[in-house]
Design a protein that fits this description.
Distance between the termini of chain A: 13 Å
CATH architecture of the largest domain in chain A: 4-Layer Sandwich
Largest interface: A-B, 30 and 31 residues
Strand content of chain A: 25-35%
Helix content of chain A: 25-40%
Largest sheet of chain A: 7 strands, mixed
Number of helices of chain A: 10
Oligomer: homodimer
CATH topology of the largest domain in chain A: Metallo-beta-lactamase, Chain A
Shape of chain A: globular
Strand order of the largest sheet of chain A: 6-5-4-3-2-1-18
Number of strands of chain A: 18
Number of domains of chain A: 2
Chain lengths: 307, 307
């Protein structure tokens, strides 16, 4: 029951020798989701031991090249690998047109389908769900339509306390009712409240990806109590004006968003190429939000299961 | 007066952790030319100390993604760097359409011009020249229209032998005539043949890039006496059938092409991902053509000036 984020790229638009543009692999319950796909994403997946064929869906925040140029080569390579499973891509318009051009020029005989789902970047909507998790869009404030993504486990099913089963002599039918969240009436007429019989085996976990964006109180509020927040911090605090003008954030903006959301941990990235050492950015953010960590390529941030 | 080739990528279509798809930087007289541009080409340029802004022109052999996906991100980044100089791109059709789509979706405000020059892949034609060098297309045999490129120094201007100037008491006018290749008539009426007065300061150097292709005697013949030949060798000799069916070459094909051309050195690359160690491919080619070397990323093959 994994819940982990592997950093594949942490640069902003100008890549450097050691930093690829934005991309992450989110592993939830052994299903992989690609979040943004800057140039080189497929090679980074392989480098960090993630089979590209395992990517279930891709979530693209916005259509600047440094967040999407790596998706098209990945689509081609998955074809060479013989993928048959459709690949769902969640991205703002006009991604469908770009995809059409790519398929027309490079992949006329792709052996699997790429299915585009439009992300409406101004609304907080449910984009994707399966039995155990869901992904929501988070409207962001960038120069072009842009949405972050909130990955959330669904509440796990209730467990029934074994000692209570014995204590009250519960039948299979009564146990099943308790698992559904119902109170249970005993033969004596006594009603045992569900809360006394059951417990959640673990707390539902969550991860928010917020890039690229100016500080947005609305976005932070939509990530209430998130376990892990990735927030771009392209600039140091002193570059507030550059950040604002270009639709980006400073370290202070990222820390403020994490504070406002009540996040447990913050990871910053999308560093401008001017910062050779990201530690100074991390140190700045830590002044406001001590649990700040750097997006370092190859590092996996795991959210542990807690009861 | 450099003449050198730096390997940026040596993989075939499926990249591996250590191998990027095809790309090379050719440095002729301190002007840089990009030859093919697989994904990651811009980062590879930076990695190996070549300023992407110095790229004068790009030569794209064919429009398979592993030879061109890296060009579009490079075009974007050069815009961020503030390039003003036009970038000439030599590529087969319909590159112009692809470029149009790229500019429309990603670079509507590019501060420099990208100028597409169509390469007619069935003809051996002069594509580009300046005062000291020229680039010719070499028709290749691949699954899609594909051309290699022959980079050739022009013959350097004649030097006049200092000792002969003294011996015959040549005037400035006579020296200039000799430099133009003319015989010189002395005041005595004696005519000194140009060959006695002048010499070439160095031999014109050449480099041929042949990828992707089946073995082609015609291509080899067009590269007569080339100093350095890059020839793809996707497969080992035993995979002759796979190579032929897919429009690729084996190590034997590459060695045969080098032999037929009378090349001085051969570099092989575009290795299938099945070969973890390229040495076995090099060893195979060396059986036929001993001066075979591997396309290893970051390695620069220099053609020294010789008189």
């Amino acid at each position: 029951m994994s819940f982990a984020v592997t950093i594949l790229g942490c640069a902003s638009a100008k890549p450097t020798v050691n930093r690829h543009p934005s991309s992450q692999a989110v592993n939830i319950h052994e299903q992989y989701y690609l979040v943004d796909a800057g140039e080189g994403a497929q090679q980074q997946l392989i480098r960090y031991g993630i089979n590209p064929l395992k990517i279930r869906a891709a979530f693209i925040s916005h259509l600047h090249g440094d967040h999407v140029f790596g998706l098209f080569p990945l689509i081609s390579t998955l074809g060479l690998y013989g993928r048959r499973t459709p690949l769902d891509v969640y991205a703002p318009a006009p991604f469908g047109e770009m995809l059409g051009a790519h398929l027309r020029y490079f992949d006329t005989e792709l052996p699997y389908e790429v299915v585009w789902h439009e992300v409406a970047t101004t609304r907080h909507t449910l984009l994707f769900e399966n039995r155990t998790m869901e992904v929501w869009s988070i409207p962001l404030r960038h120069r072009v339509p842009c949405a972050g993504f909130l990955f959330r486990e669904k509440e796990p099913p209730l467990n029934v306390d074994k000692f209570k089963i014995v204590k009250y002599g519960l039948s299979i039918a009564q146990i099943t009712a308790a698992k559904r969240g119902e109170d249970v009436a005993l033969e004596t007429g006594e009603v045992i409240p569900n809360g006394e019989l059951t417990y959640r085996p673990y707390r539902a976990r969550s991860y928010a990806y917020l890039s690229d964006t100016n500080f947005s109180a609305r976005a932070a509020n939509l990530c209430k109590d998130v376990d892990l927040m990735y927030h771009e911090a392209t600039y140091a605090a002193a570059e507030q004006r550059s950040a604002r003008d270009r639709g980006h954030s400073t370290t202070t903006d990222a820390a403020k968003a994490a504070l406002k959301a009540g996040a447990r941990r913050l990871v910053i990235g999308h560093y401008s190429s001017r910062y050779k050492d990201e530690q100074l950015l991390v140190d700045e953010a830590r002044e406001l939000f001590p649990e700040t960590w750097p997006a370092t390529e190859g590092v996996t941030y795991t959210i542990e299961k807690e009861s």
